[in-house]
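Annotators were shown the component list below and the corresponding predicted structure, then asked to write short factual statements about the assembly.
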Amino acid sequence: MSDIFPRWTNKIPLMVGVAAAVVLPTVIAGITYYFTPKYTRVGYQPKQPVAFSHAIHSDQLGIDCRYCHSDVDKSWFSNIPASETCMRCHSIVAKDSPKLSLVRESYSSGKPIPWVQIHKTPDYVYFNHSVHVNRGISCVKCHGEIQKMDEVYHAKPLSMGFCLECHREPEKHIRPNDLVTKLDWNGEFDGKKAVHDWKVQPGQSCSTCHR
Amino acid sequence: MVLHRDGSVDDGRFANNGWLQEMPDSITKVTWDNVVMMSQKTAKSLGLPTKRSGKIPEDLSPAEAADAKDGQYDQPVVKITVGGRSVEGPVWIQPGLADGTVALALGYGRRIVGRVGRGVGFDAYSLFQSTSRHITAGKVEKVFRKHRLAVTQEHGLMEGRPVIREAHLEEFKAHPKFAQNMDLEAHFPGYVPYKEETDGRNAEKRPQNIYEHPYDQNPETASKVHQWGMVIDLQTCVGCSACVVACQSENNIPIVGKDQVARGREMHWMRIDRYYSHNPEVDVNAELAAEDPQMAIQPMFCQHCEAAPCESVCPVNATVHDEEGINGMAYNRCIGTRYCANNCPYKVRRFNWFDFNKRESDYGAAQDQHLVNTGNLYKGPLGVNRNTEPEWEIIKLVKNPDVSVRMRGVMEKCTLCVQRVQQGKIAQKVKAGNSGDVAVPDGAIKTACQQACPADAIVFGNMLDAHSEVVKAKASPRNYSVLGFLDTRPRVTYLARVRNPNPVILDLEKRKTPDSQRDYERFRHESPFQEHSHGHDASHQSATQAGKGAV
Amino acid sequence: MASPGKSAAVKAPEPPAELVRESLVLNNRSLGWITNAIAGVCEKPMPMWWWPAFIVSVGGMLTMFSLIAYLVSTGVGVWGLNHPAAWAWDITNFVFWIGIGHAGTLISAVLFLLRQKWRTSVNRAAEAMTIFAVACAGIFPVFHTGRVWFALLPGYLFPAPNANEIWPQFRSPLLWDVFAVSTYGTVSLLFWYVGLIPDLATLRDRSKGVMRRFFYGLFSLGWTGSNRHWSNYEKAYLLLAGLSTPLVLSVHSIVSFDFAVSVIPGWHTTIFPPYFVAGAIFSGFGMVLTLLIPLRSLFKLEDIVTLRHVDLMCKVLLATGSIVGYAYGMEFFIAWYGGSPYELYAFKNRAFGPYWWSYWAMISCNVISPHFFWFKKLRTSVVFVWIVSIFVNIGMWFERFVIIVTSLHRDYLPSSWGYFTPSWVDIMTFVGSFGLFMTLFLLFIRFLPVIAISEVKGVTPQADPHHPLGGAKGHH
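Structure shown to annotators:
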């Protein structure tokens, strides 16, 4: 028998097998980690045209979320406020600050400030803010600790799995309705009783969000 | 010669409305064209072939002759001349039309109209003269060419299957539950009456099933607050198809154009089925009886079966049952294997064969009376996209933002307007806040079809609400489900029709029982007006012989 | 044993004459002759007809690929499908090709476990046919989906953990198909490859060119022909045969579940699994004969693939064809006996409705033609057998077409009754799949031994050391 291949090639099948056993799970794990919203979306922190700080307004000053995001409990969409809302205070407070020049310009010209949207679900997902906000789900559940953010970043993955976690066990995430916008609240609450009394039945089937 | 306003484009004012052009005519089910309607006898006398083969089968009733041949309606064209002016149009065998009468709809064949309507159909207005107007006399001659029609329903007979159930008023009074005593579910001993005191699901006979119902297996999956159901009253439905168009507008259903409808690919989620029935035994002159068929109509759409055959065969879980009884469809999950459409016994699922929303349709602007087929859909990425059209911004505004716009390759079907259901539930929950008052009051949610129906034939509501309209309707003895023996347990049920014709127009001696009922008895050798014994016995008699005090 | 005292030897009785079996290799060919005959096919330059055949096949294959690209870019509507017939040629072709594959596995695996020595002349080509048929088959279920790019993505059809926390639906027969067909393809490929190893080594040792030596050497995995190698080989072969055998029955049963699990009249019958498996073996043997009869003549392998082999395969055709014919009759009987008017109509429609021509084509090709093989004269007339094998495959294609389209186009509600007409894309895609099949098969003929050299040699009398001709004694 002629020697076509050198002796070390005898080990090739073993090497291939070991490589497959090591590489394949690594690749799958990698894809599962890197290609899911937990990695791709969490941490997204775009530069906004105006350096609005939730930490100052929400935490320090204690302004309620709904002062600016006024339609969050009425509609599916949580609106960014019009410049007029900003100017209610900033016509007096820091009224000449260069950081707010875009706001003043927007208010006088009527052109909206080009805020960069951070949280966006795909077109085939129909999410409704009002039903969550009115039924004991706080902003922090999906937006993270906004009150601590100087610059807002995407704190939660907002993948379907993330939504299902709460939809499957609402009692773990629910709080009294009047405390929904109290973002730093950390108290005890009988979620099970609330789910029972309020008849909280978040849908788990597809037509809940996909239509 | 009768010239009438069309059921969809009226006198022509809606000729540029794609929805109305594609809406199947209430009786003929023809889309995108008007047809020269005549009876089979009239067609024969003109020497017209009623089937593509050119021969007129002697024993074919008009209803059977009106069927498609191999899926196509390639109709011979005739020329109608009235007072020196003439119009050509394709022949349509209309069962029940008086002999010697020819009817043609106005409003088609417009030349100066938008892109959609130009070249569609045949202009009857030239025959419409101030001296004769709608009813006139004319001459009909053969023209040696054919015209292909796009028709949505190819077969107009029920074949003895009790899809639509009817009885005469007196028969109904004697046997109020006749509709629940038909088809296989009445015949087999294994079928037991359903317990009517539970959560209000279908209250008629149901087979004893060796498989446990999903809601019984996992009772916690079913919502205790809402269980949606719907009832269609066949008594009041007139077949106007307003529901079809309302559904189309609500759910962003595209129009596909004449060529695609001719291939059987219309996208309507709802359809109005129209069946003819006749009973040859009725008169000595069978031909005469056949020329006076009865017609029955039935809106058909997703029945939202509790044990849906479509759900168990989808390999990716794109169609699942929600907790409230709606069979939902997740378009983003669908990979388009089409097994669900094959397994649906009602054939109500519609597949997006092309990018009907993204690409321009197949029709093109025509200079003369003929629609030009550009074949744009078949060009795929090399074709013209709608977003290059000047009207794109307006086209976008037509769409309902609460419903996805589907791309090619996904399956769709009636969702019981789940977007409206969700909106209703959300509004109620927002109002309820931290209370348990989450049940939507009856009538707050109306599906699009229900909203549009001029006869209020559609009733939708929560079956757990004891006072809702839908519960009252389902409690009616006329309530039945189509193909109930399959044990699909549809949430959409129908109220059987009761006929009470004036004896002056119909010979009650011979034709009291509606023809479809007689057809059923003739095919199946059994009658709902007779008690069915457990176990098959050979002595089933038809109602004509059963004057023996049968219950 | 003679006792020491006795002088006359006791004559031991003569052993009975050995039962004369029809030899599997004719004309007493030596082992060397067999090797030369088979290896010579891929060592010598290809005969004249190979190149035009290859070009035509590649043309067909490229046609199919381009039409698939057209399909994926434009939409499933380029096929003739509609409502109600949402499946027609696509699934017919899938079941057709997958069914053909089953014969190869039966010959390789089942006949091996049943110790049928005659399988050795045909198993290599048959198993190659299986793999190529599975390749052709796999294209159809993948590309018939409306959104292929999602169908292939893990998480949709292939279970994979994903951020949507959703799994495929395991109750769906289409998903069972995914597992069944991929398992079948993998196991068949492995089985075929393992069987090839000694023959590849033979070719390696005979090869002259560097490229040939490298590739045959690479794929023969260092085979030396030692006892240990042979022992491992036999064990692996037996294991794989054991694994493949249940696949012969299960894979096509699962494919039949695509229909049997549904509610459509004409589909929802329990006879489908055995009926489909028998039909698959029937069509597969038909295709094996279609391929092997010309092959044996063109490459002068008639002494190895003998008339006895053809005869035996025709008997299998007769048996499975009879099962298929029985199944047709039984379906109809149960439709009548069961009393469901819908089921009965489905069968009346098959025979007398708009697709009556396809039904009668099916009946004449599948029910009538195998019964010619009651007669030995016809079983051993290769021209006749080849013609019948073509008809068998035509008939089996029509069988799937009849099952799918006639049941779909007229089911429960008469208002939804329709008609299906294939478009040119349907037709050319199917023709192109033959192009792909023949391309692969022609390449197989060119580069690989079409008959299992070592296995055929193993069943000749020369291979048996106790045989007068065998072992070291017999040589030509």
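Statements collected:
1. The two ends of chain A are 68 Å apart (CA to CA).
2. The CA atoms of residues 24 and 30 of chain A lie 10 Å apart.
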